[in-house]
Amino acid sequence: MTSSNSPGARGKFITFEGIDGAGKSTHLNWFAEQLAARLASQGRQVVCTREPGGTPLGERLRTLLLEEPMHLETEALLMFAARREHLARVISPALDRGDWVISDRFTDATFAYQGGGRGLSIDKLAVLEQWVQEGLQPDLTVLFDLAPEVAAARLAGARAPDKFEREPVAFFARTRAEYLRRAAQAPQRFAVIDADQPRENIQVILEKILINV
Ligand code: TYD
């Protein structure tokens, strides 16, 4: 019998999500180190990547997306354009090799930010999702959930805010609500973590997730 951890098996795809200021990037690095140590004995690697970005073209699109004002549909289309490139050049080849991929954001962010935050039709986004991903979904999505007021206070003064980070608290309240709606729709894929607790507590929760993934 071939288990998902046996040599030759396809790798797993894990995504980290949350509103700006929820702390996902810090935890992602720690989680990736733990996972890499666990997979090393199987000869598998962990590929850490991010969206928008993850490829040379995707990173150029990221700069535009985070800096330039644009029509909201243009924004969604560019997110998916960057994602198409990311899937074709990085994510799918890594999974095919048997490596595991951890992405700092993926399509749930588009539903949350462009759909929830900006109000773009969820149905239109679902069409693009199907086109670009052809049914591929993360095996696990870790959602760092935090009240937008708390997230805003964490971000204040940290560094020059980008286009999204300049959005008001109400935008992030809508973004968070859409993340939670998607998590409720796919509970088998999502692990929702209350991000309003000390880092050590969150690491304990992540360790449990790691054991079961
Ligand atoms: P983020 O992941 O928060 O990176 P950093 O921690 O370096 O700021 O920045 C990416 C921003 O892009 C974030 O504000 C969310 C936004 N975004 C979308 O609006 N839609 C998407 O589909 C993705 C992937 C990101």
Describe the structure.
The protein has 213 residues and is an alpha/beta fold. The chain has one domain (13-212): Rossmann fold. 55% of the residues lie in helices and 13% in strands. It has 8 helices and 5 strands. It has helices at 24-40, 56-67, 72-97, 107-117, 122-133, 148-155, 169-185, 199-212; strands spanning 13-18, 46-50, 100-104, 140-145, 190-194. The chain has a 5-stranded parallel beta sheet with strand order 2-3-1-4-5, with helices on both faces. Helix 3 (72-97) packs parallel to helix 5. The longest helix is centred in the middle third of the chain and has 26 residues, at 72-97. The mean pLDDT is 95. The structure holds thymidine-5'-diphosphate. The site of thymidine-5'-diphosphate has 12 residues, from helix 4.
Number of helices: 8
Into which percentage range does the β-strand content fall?
5-15%
Specify the helix fraction band: 40-55%
Low-pLDDT segments, ≥5 res: none
- The whole-angstrom Rg is 17 Å
Q: Whole-Å distance between the termini?
A: 19 Å
Bound molecules: thymidine-5'-diphosphate
